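Proteins fold reproducibly. Take a sample protein:
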Amino acid sequence: MEGFKPRVEDDRLLRGKARFVDDVRPPGYLAAVFVRSPRAFAAISSIDLTAAISYPGVHTVLIAADITSAGVGNVSQPMPQTGRGGAKLKVPFRPALADGRVMHVGQPVALVIADSFALAQEAADHVDIVYDEFPPAVGVRQAIGPEASRLWEEALSNVAIDWPGAVDDPDNEAEVERIIATAAHVATVSAVNQRLVVASMEPRGASAAFDPVDGIYTLRCGTQGAVALRDEVAATLGIADEKVVVITDDVGGAFGMKTPLYPEYIALLVAARMLRRPVHWMSSRSEAFLSDNQARDTVTEGTLALDDDGRFLALRMNVLADMGAFLSTASAFIATSNFARCLSSVYAIPRIAVRVRCVFTNSTPTAPYRGAGRPEANYVIERLVEAASTVTRVDSLTLRRRNMIRPRMLPYRTPVGTTIDSGHFEALLDRALVLGNFTGFPVRKREAIKRGKLRGIGVSCFLEHAGGVPKESAALRFPGNETVIVALGVQATGQGQETAFGRLTAKQLGIPAERVSVVQGDTRLGVPSGGSSTASRSTVTAGAAIVRAVEQVVKIGCKTAADMLETSCSDVEYVDGTFRIKGTDRSVSLFAVAEQAALAAERGEGESLDTAATAETPQTFPNGCHIAEVEIDPETGVVEVVAYNAVDDSGHLLEPVLVEGQIQGGVVQGIGQALFEQAIYDTDTGQLVTGSFTDYAMPRACDVPPIHAVSCPFAATTNPLGVKGAGESGTTGSLAAIMNAIDDALPASAQATIDMPATPAKIWRACMDADVTGYDKVRAARTIAE
């Protein structure tokens, strides 16, 4: 791309100079290995540590009693939610090490600490645990059934919360039911968002230490926000925030999975305090499959009512969402509020009713993963539009245009309470149709038939939400040598934040970017408050905080500059890194002012330019239109994505290349969900069947076509930079685009039988079981060609 400058972090990352969790083992550390449950649901009858503890070099083996004696609280620290009739979210106690019973395969039961990992692993293999198994509840449909085992006494029917939408309004539900019952047309879909394994390149790991002198715990691990994780650690340990230090170095991928607190971190901290030695643990890939939070896993029944003209009247969503055995920080919030806030997408739907039941099952907990409720919502809506096209016999593009929110309607308040501030949704649809040469598709389809292939095209319009709470801070420091340090609470996990925030600060200050360095991942940096790099919020919130911090620097610096220039502050202006007297050439540089202000502050005669600012920005609403084309070989069922075109509104672009990369990466993960990925648990035993990359399929480079991603920005009005989130748009838009394309390629009677992932076996069977007219034409064309 013209004018592109390489990311500043790339030299370090590409040359092997990065520092990941396992690269920073503390001096004198002991090795930690977890003993994990091989059972999905069972009582722990006994634990015999005799053989394990007798191994030379083994320092201790921790079990639940050791954690309890340390006064540790609930590892589950979920965001509060209120359900139907004011009922609160059920929050079972999640121990750092299983206490009395195990709730999913892979739950940590014991922690072995030894001189080396080899010794610890050998000793772990000799921890003798006897389990008394119960029938597990696997999958949301089974878990809410009358014969299902009850996982928690406080959760009837295994339901953590029955959520009636943002407003518990029976009248609204009744009105939606009335509209659906009397509507001229009703479209329905049943949509499954299968369970996914996040599978970041770097698995989780951590080092833990304890200083007995000052009573401070230090946790070094891969996070998406050190400040946010510190707060959860402190709450679980029952101590003040200032007694916990969290440090994060480079992070090899996260996608939401590395945001929350995990049981392992607490157990490691307790071990470090007991032994007065640092301890270090690094997950294997096998462990990661069993213990890293997983994602999605929802079943949604969607119903859309339309009038005679094909205008949308009402939408009903009935969702079952699998929480796994325990609640993660945001799992219930994602399934409820995050999901609902994407409704009604880019369409004006007068009435919406939502019911979400969050269900406990004997499986690894689910939590944020790229999109976090947005892909699930958009997928159902766009599938409903296609279903509505069938029942109304109105072209789906016409239906989309007819029902889109118009620019004159903005700001638009949706029935679920969100207010969309900006965008031009039809313009993005038009741009995408041109980019994807939609009008030329019939020619491409005919050409594919000659090659014996079924070709389909799928459109997906979408709108998501990004940014927002909690507050975010940025601190600017002037250490000398004509440099600026930007300290942030958000955390880079591969997005290029050092580049984006460094250049943003330089631009705001009017100085060369080489003068600015970005530091993150340390709760000792003095950042007043910080969330995490989730919800596509970092640029929106941290960017706004940087703008405010720069404003404060200029305001404070003006006083010192006025003294240095022997004039009044009202006569001084700040331009391109200098304070100058208006209308003259008399000026003094920012760094000279910073040096003078620091000296004055030391004497108690003024303020230094070191400052911090906090921003609280409303949400933004990224949106777009993605168009996918697929080709299907009906004799093998293999689906190939042959073209992908994406038009996105991410607001004002600070770094266009980084935004394009985010869109492309999200689309690839969407291709993975649509065609390949699925975490499967055995319904009888609760064992993870797809427990390695041998069984869990991931997209490869050969599965991804060139992704043409272009920007069609309309600036957000909710933050000073006009930016919108970009990190999750690719995933949000891609699922429906690909699955709609598959439906378009298949015979009509085969379409309703395909859930994600659209594997070759499913596609082949659908072709064989369906009305085979289209299939016969393809086979005949291939025969003629041969």
